[in-house]
């Protein structure tokens, strides 16, 4: 898992001109799994830079999405949902979240509008109360899924949970208050030059985004316990030589890792049918991302109990040491 080097990123790019009073800096969203953090980031950035799914704990990597505004540049660091760790992977994810919290300029604490506040939310609220130096904005997410009364009640309940600098109800689905949320976050950033060129939406390498898109496609419609057992690595990726101009093709060879042979059979499906569908769905998304046609070769491999094995975790890129 890539370590954040925010100090390096704070070094301004030399030729960028910017108006006086320009603000730039980092924000991160925290909250229980499945509260809509990745979807909100994508909506604010305006493009899919983090994968989402209706299963908890989809996010495993810190993806930076960049929101460009005339007066500010907001870089959003996406984190996995905080939860009580059960596996070594869970522990690594939690420590990744914690190390991110102390490095950002502002934190967004996400609580969904359509679910009662639970132990998970209170646990995180307590953790956040310890971040005394960093402002925390509470976001009541998914307001489109709740009535106005429910949203109002949730705003009050969230207020009770801690000392937030602001509370903003938002919906990534219908766009409610997205601008306001961006305003509030930008207001907490320090003055400084843009940190990324105009137009950059993320600094994740393409290989990482491609692997995440394959993982997203593979998560569709599998049994509940499987998502946490799937990891994807791009083994090789590059332009096809000799392709005619206007007909560019990118060759991608990727491996889909599962923990047990029985899971391999599920992912592949009868006569390879499921894997073919995963490949087709992923290819469409990757073609949109890269802007070329894509040849995608997917292999399913077993990495026995990789979530509990430090060596395997390192090999699959989850090598955050803390
Ligand atoms: N109706 C509605 N659904 C939403 C909204 N935001 C997110 N969702 C759905 O909620 C589910 C979870 O969203 P994610 O963005 O993956 O949640 P997350 O908090 O990043 O989840 P983890 O990666 O598990 O931490 C997905 O099915 C989304 O489509 C929203 O504003 N309205």
Automatic annotation (TrEMBL):
It is a peripheral membrane protein. It is found in: Cytoplasm; Cell membrane. Residues 57-61 are annotated as: G2. Residues 78-81 are annotated as: G3. One of its GO terms (molecular function) is GTPase activity. Keywords: Cell membrane, Cytoplasm, GTP-binding, Membrane, Nucleotide-binding, Ribosome biogenesis, RNA-binding, rRNA-binding. Residues 222-304 form the KH type-2 domain. CDD domains: Era (cd04163), KH-II_Era (cd22534). GTP binds at residues 31-38, 78-82, 141-144. Residues 141-144 are annotated as: G4. Residues 31-38 are annotated as: G1. The keyword Membrane applies. Residues 23-191 form the Era-type G domain. GO terms for biological process: ribosomal small subunit assembly. Residues 170-172 are annotated as: G5. Monomer. An essential GTPase that binds both GDP and GTP, with rapid nucleotide exchange. Plays a role in 16S rRNA processing and 30S ribosomal subunit biogenesis and possibly also in cell cycle regulation and energy metabolism. NCBIfam families: era, PRK00089.1, small_GTP. PANTHER family: GTPASE ERA (PTHR42698), GTPASE ERA, MITOCHONDRIAL (PTHR42698:SF1). This is GTPase Era. It comes from Nocardiopsis composta.
């Amino acid at each position: 898992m890539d370590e954040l080097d925010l100090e390096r990123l704070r070094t301004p790019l030399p030729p960028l001109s910017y108006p006086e009073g320009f603000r730039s800096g980092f924000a991160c969203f925290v909250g229980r799994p499945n509260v809509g953090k990745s979807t909100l980031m994508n909506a604010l950035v305006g493009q899919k830079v983090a994968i989402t799914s209706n299963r908890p704990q989809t996010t495993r990597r810190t993806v930076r999405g960049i929101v460009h505004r005339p007066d500010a540049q907001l870089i959003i660091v996406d984190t996995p949902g905080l939860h009580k760790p059960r596996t070594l992977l869970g522990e690594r994810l939690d420590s990744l979240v914690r190390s991110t919290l102390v490095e950002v300029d502002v934190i967004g604490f996400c609580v969904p509008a359509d679910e009662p506040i639970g132990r998970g939310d209170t646990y995180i609220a307590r953790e956040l109360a310890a971040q005394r130096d960093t402002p925390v904005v509470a976001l009541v997410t998914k307001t489109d899924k709740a009535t106005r009364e429910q949203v109002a009640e949730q705003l009050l309940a969230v207020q009770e949970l801690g000392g937030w600098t602001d509370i903003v109800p938002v919906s990534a689905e219908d766009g409610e208050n997205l601008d306001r949320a961006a305003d509030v976050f930008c207001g907490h950033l320090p003055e400084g030059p843009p940190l990324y060129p105009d137009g950059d939406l993320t600094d994740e390498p393409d290989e990482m985004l491609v692997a995440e898109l394959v993982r997203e496609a593979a998560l569709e419609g599998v049994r509940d316990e499987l998502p946490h057992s799937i990891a994807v690595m791009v083994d090789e990726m590059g332009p096809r030589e000799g392709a005619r101009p206007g007909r560019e093709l990118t060759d991608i060879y990727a491996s889909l890792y599962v923990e047990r042979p029985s899971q391999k059979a599920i992912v592949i499906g009868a006569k390879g049918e499921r894997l073919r569908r995963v490949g087709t769905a992923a290819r469409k998304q990757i073609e949109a991302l890269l802007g070329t046609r894509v040849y995608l070769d997917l292999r399913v491999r077993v990495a026995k109990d990789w979530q509990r094995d430090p060596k395997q975790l390192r090999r699959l890129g989850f090598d955050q040491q803390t």
